[in-house]
């Protein structure tokens, strides 16, 4: 079995597995070359041949231990009737929450087709993914990225019923979407809750129930497929998130890794250095990553996947990213 | 003595004092009327008569327990040679860090003049303020507001020496600036660390030393003036921030208020409901605020100041803000 899946399942591994969020991204020359073949970002995601190629890039270039489907968390909103445009940041136009359409997976079949083709071409485990309901809801209500996501917080405080209706609709869609990805062949799924950090601990506790239902339902259908929950704001939300029925929690850099290491014994952890570390010299990267892994190994020798606390940025150096992966792989258990 | 200062000092009060960040702001009709008298936001801040009037507005309109100087945290960057423009969001052009000028308080004399005039016109305690060094540094390095503040994190990881030089320069300036505000008559000072939330716990620990020096130096010169430290990211930074030599910690909504209430016995607390609560119905506001204050009173009957976890937003209703203040003032100890 792959190091990635073995470590997620708590089996013995010789080294910690590593993959990186946005590992196939604009920082990579080969990615930019492929990107230039089509006009819009949505074409890029929905062109199966290109999406397959992009998904596979990090295997050859970085030597990571898992691939992640190349797509965007906003893709499954299209069948709901949400209009999405990337300029290059996303702008959304959504019908009123009550009028969001039922999810029709046939409309995003290119995603499942991409998964099937990647599985034919690589033996690496493939991670499927979806945005978590809160993050998708924040995009829908806000219409774009935002620093504060005030409008979804407004909805939460001013109309709890409608907020919960939105979360329910998105939970249902996400469950179907991830199930279909699993049926198409992904080996694990990751939920991205990139904007969860704007939630107070008590608001997150309420939202928790939607997440739990989503995960429980997936687990019932696909008990063998690990669910990874990535959430920004790990520092203040971990206390609640730790009780989710996920197989792994992927934490951002707002939490000292020792805290979850101390508390969680049966769940895997993924994370969590600040991606900005990649701007440092190789010497600093090597020292910081090694010290970090040394901390981890004081607590566990499995149930850990190295990743950063968030995605890679376009201006990062490909060579440095490669070096980071090497440092992690060199660290023997 | 005023309820505000008494509570900050741990003396007996009949009710918890209340003021709100951005209490004089665009949500307020009278503010918008005054704002329309000048072209740029910087003119608005530097016109002493207008700044005095704006500072005083919330006394009459809201009935809060403290005034806060009307100005902007970017104002003291002007004498350092930083160019600031509001369109309406701030855009900055800064010389290289090594070439930032020495702070010359004469160049922002309008701030001290505003303070002196406000003190002549009102008996309410007046809060002076400044941006905390990290938040100012983030603005300088980024050149504008940002969701991720990746560039200051980049500086932190790639050139620690230069990062610390920037923090030292800003610490020195801020110390002088707040000292001068105190000499001009403010009764308390608040440091705004609005972007601290992008820091990891370990990066915050390093930055902590700059904050400590700043506060210790102010305390030596003005032992009687309370220092309030407001920091976003309270959920993951509180563990370290609690040891700062501030008189009060002003926390955002990423922390359940019971946590600092349990831990801090001699420091005052200020905060911390999500400002988005103001979009809710009066009924909800009243219930949430009352439940919140009930929690506080289980731990303490002084050393507490009601505020929100962040500033008010332009689209909030003046009447609701007024109602919020009433609810807090009605809650007797």
Explain how this protein is built.
- The first copy, chain A, has 333 residues and is α/β, with parallel strands linked by helices.
- The first copy, chain A, has one domain: TIM Barrel (Alpha-Beta Barrel), CATH 3.20.20.210.
- In chain A, 46% of the residues lie in helices and 13% in strands.
- In chain A, α9 links the parallel β5 and β6 (227-231).
- The longest helix of chain A has 25 residues, at 160-184.
- The radius of gyration of chain A is 19 Å and the shape is globular.
- The two termini of chain A are 17 Å apart.
- Chain A binds chain B through residues 145-148, 150, 153-154, 156-158, 197, 200-203, 233-237, 253-256, 274, 276-281, 284, 309-310, 313, and chain B through 145-148, 150, 153-154, 156-158, 197, 200-203, 233-237, 253-256, 274, 276-281, 284, 309-310, 313.
Q: Summed up, what is this model?
A:
The structure is a homodimer of 333-residue chains. Chain A is an alpha/beta fold and 333 residues long.
- Show the largest interface: A-B, 35 and 35 residues
Assembly level = homodimer
Biggest sheet record of chain A: 7 strands, parallel
- Give the fraction of residues assigned to helices of chain A: 40-55%
The geometry of chain A reads as globular
Strand order of the largest sheet of chain A: 1-4-5-6-7-8-9
Number of domains of chain A: 1
Distance between the ends of chain A? 17 Å
CATH class of chain A: Alpha Beta
Class by SSE composition of chain A = alpha/beta
Number of strand segments of chain A:
9
The CATH architecture of chain A can be named as Alpha-Beta Barrel
The helix-strand sequence of chain A is: HHHHEEEHEHHHEHEHEHEHEH
Low-confidence stretches of chain A: none
Strand residue percentage of chain A = 5-15%
Query: Helix tally of chain A?
Result: 13
- Chain-averaged pLDDT of chain A: 97
Pfam families (chains A, B): URO-D
Catalytic activity (chains A, B): uroporphyrinogen III + 4 H(+) = coproporphyrinogen III + 4 CO2
Family (chains A, B): Belongs to the uroporphyrinogen decarboxylase family.
Subunit structure (chains A, B): Homodimer.
């Amino acid at each position: 079995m792959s190091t990635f899946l073995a470590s997620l399942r708590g089996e013995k591994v010789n080294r910690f597995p590593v993959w990186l969020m946005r590992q196939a991204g604009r920082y990579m020359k080969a990615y930019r070359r492929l990107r230039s073949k089509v006009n819009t970002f949505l074409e890029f995601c929905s062109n199966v041949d290109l999406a397959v190629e992009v998904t596979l890039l990090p295997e050859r270039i970085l030597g990571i231990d898992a691939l992640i489907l190349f797509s965007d968390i906003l893709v499954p909103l299209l069948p709901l009737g949400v209009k999405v445009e990337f300029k290059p940041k996303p702008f959304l136009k959504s019908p009123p929450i009550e009028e969001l359409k039922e999810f029709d997976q046939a409309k995003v079949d290119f995603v499942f087709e991409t998964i099937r083709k990647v599985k034919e071409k690589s033996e690496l485990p493939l991670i499927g993914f979806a945005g978590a309901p809160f993050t998708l809801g924040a995009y829908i209500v806000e219409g774009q990225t935002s620093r504060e996501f005030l409008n979804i917080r407004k909805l939460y405080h001013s109309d709890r019923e409608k907020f919960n209706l939105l979360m329910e609709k998105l939970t249902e869609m996400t469950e179907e979407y991830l199930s279909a990805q699993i049926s198409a062949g992904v080996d694990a799924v990751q939920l991205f809750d990139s904007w969860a950090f704007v939630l107070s601990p008590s608001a997150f506790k309420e939202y928790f129930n939607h997440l739990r239902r989503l995960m429980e339902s997936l687990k019932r259908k696909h008990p063998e497929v690990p669910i990874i929950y990535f959430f920004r704001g790990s520092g203040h939300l971990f206390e609640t998130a730790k009780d989710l029925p996920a197989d792994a929690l992927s934490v951002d850099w707002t939490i000292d890794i020792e805290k979850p290491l101390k508390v969680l014994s049966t769940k895997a952890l993924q994370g969590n250095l600040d991606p900005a570390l990649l701007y440092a010299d190789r010497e600093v990267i090597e020292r910081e990553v090694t010290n970090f892994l040394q901390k981890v190994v004081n607590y566990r020798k499995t149930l850990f996947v190295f990743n950063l606390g968030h995605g890679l940025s376009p201006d990062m150096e490909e060579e440095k990213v490669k070096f980071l992966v090497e440092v992690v792989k060199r660290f023997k258990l």
